[in-house]
Description:
65% of the residues lie in helices and 0% in strands. It contains 3 helices and no strands. The chain has helices at residues 10-27, 36-57, 68-85. Helix 1 (10-27) packs across helix 3. The N and C termini lie far apart (47 Å).
Amino acid sequence: MNGLFGSSSWLYILLVGFFVGLLGRFFMPGNNRMGCLLTIVLGIVGALVAGWFGQYMGWYRPGEPAGFLGAVIGAVAVLAVMRLFSPRR
């Protein structure tokens, strides 16, 4: 599957990262003001965190990426950690 939406396609990674970031922001209550770029970064980092944690817990084999639900949970976890370390307004 090496077309436009292949597993190694940057466009695919960016689109999935955007939707994961949007869902992560939706499920994390509060004021999560960020633009499109930070939402994409949030989704990608959430997927990486979920993959690392899943491998640590033995849920995923080494090199196996996290699933979509795991990525969303990872994005919510990243937002929670960001909220812990952000200054109060």
